[in-house]
Design goal:
Muramoyl-pentapeptide Carboxypeptidase, domain 1, 3 domains
């Protein structure tokens, strides 16, 4: 009896020590030679850049998910039979002559993606064809910008959108269906903006020097909107008086009331250009200070200090993001329901405001430097939307922003 118990104990012990080898799957937390083998194979195929430690950690899981997404396998991040077969088959093994050709082709795809992402201001690493953390993060940002599933992998859909973006930006950094349409819209935009500059100049005759500077900055910012959306913005402001322009305040548990103001009839005036305000993130309660510096279809804003930028990034998970979040804009004691995307664009912090510069942030190319607040840790401005406000690129109401505004309106501060 004792011998049988000892035998069973030894068998259990041996099985536990070799469970990685005989297990159907390898997953997060697994250890052993099979994990080392997995890491080595992923490294050969260009998916893993870490050390082959034999421990299945977050880097190994992320690399495996990239491989699975590339092969059309469910991205579980675990090594099961299907993934094992694909990973070690002759078609993907780096030892085969076929894979060397495939690997070289994939490397060129990665290089091309890195160049495009770099021009967009999403990637600052080397254009080396290696798919590391920086490239994966840049791809995720691009996918977020385009409303795609965030995989961090250059699949066929992502590659196509990247190439389409590159082709579009070659015509115009902010849009235009073809060269002729783009050129026409730009001419119309410049004409409209010249008229606005004249009106602004007339209004500044009795203004202070500071107010004049704000008017001039506003005029320059509108000149920078040289695309089809900007060309028709003069008409759109009057057309923007859309239905359901609810300006009634929403009761909250806070001392004040959260107001849902229509952008065209109220919010645009309450939160005027040059105004400072405090942004309160509804989900975390964290806040930071901003200034509205540009924008007509919505409020283009900038943080006041590097500390404000630090808090803003913390709210969005430690990085700049196009993700929409419900926020409250507090100005002169009023609480306005809004939605914000924390992705600075179209400016350079190290250049004077409103002058013509090249390589503006996030791939906006040459144009007026839409960065008025200096030494705040961001290049360019970010977007804050209110009820019925529109994007500058599409001149349409953004559903995701409007959804976030509703969440902000119902907040309990």
């Amino acid at each position: 009896m004792k011998k049988s118990k000892v035998f069973i104990f030894l068998m259990v012990l041996i099985f536990s020590l070799t469970s990685v080898t005989f297990a159907d799957t390898l997953k997060f937390g697994s250890k052993g030679s099979e994990v080392t083998k997995l890491q080595a194979q992923l490294k050969k195929l260009g998916y893993f850049n870490g050390k082959t430690t034999g421990y299945f950690g977050s880097e190994t899981k992320a690399a495996l998910k990239k491989f699975q997404a590339k092969k059309g396998i469910s991205t579980t991040g675990t090594l099961g039979p299907q993934t094992t077969k694909a990973l070690y088959s002759s078609g993907t093994s780096s030892r085969s002559s076929t894979s060397k050709v495939q690997s070289a082709a994939e490397k060129e795809v990665i290089k091309k993606a890195q160049r495009i992402l770099n021009k967009m201001g999403l990637y600052n690493g080397k254009v080396d064809g290696l798919y590391g953390k920086m490239t994966s993060k840049a791809v995720e940002r691009f996918q977020s910008l385009n409303g795609m599933k965030l995989t961090g992998v250059i699949d066929k859909e992502t590659e196509t959108k990247l190439l389409n973006h590159f082709a579009t930006s070659a015509v115009s950094s902010r849009g235009g269906s073809n060269g002729s349409d783009s050129q026409t819209s730009r001419i119309e935009a410049v004409k409209a903006d010249k008229e606005e500059v004249q009106l602004l100049s007339a209004d500044t005759n009795t203004a202070t020097a500071e107010t004049k500077a704000e008017f001039e900055a506003a005029a320059v910012s509108e000149t920078a909107e040289t695309d089809s959306a900007a060309a028709s913005e003069g008409e759109e402001e009057s057309q923007g008086l859309e239905e359901d322009a609810d300006t009634e305040p929403v009761e909250t548990d806070s001392k004040g009331k959260i107001e849902v103001l229509d952008w065209w009839t109220a919010a645009n005036k309450v939160f005027a250009r040059g105004s400072n305000a405090k942004v309160i993130d509804v989900r975390t309660g964290k806040s930071f200070n901003i200034k509205r510096t540009y924008g007509r279809n919505h409020a283009d804003c900038e943080t006041l200090t590097k500390e404000d930028t630090k808090i803003m990034k913390e709210i969005w998970g430690g990085e700049f993001s196009w993700s929409r979040r419900p926020v409250i804009v507090e100005i002169d004691g009023r609480l306005l329901a809004a939605s914000m995307a924390a992705m600075p664009h179209a400016g350079l912090d190290n250049k004077p405001a409103n002058v013509t510069v090249s390589s503006r942030s996030l791939g906006y190319g040459r144009g007026a430097n839409l960065d008025a607040v200096k030494n705040n840790g961001i290049s360019g401005h970010f977007d804050i939307h209110f009820k019925n406000s529109r994007t500058h690129g599409t001149n349409r109401v953004d559903a995701a922003h409007q959804k976030a505004i509703k969440e902000a309106a119902a907040a309990k501060l």
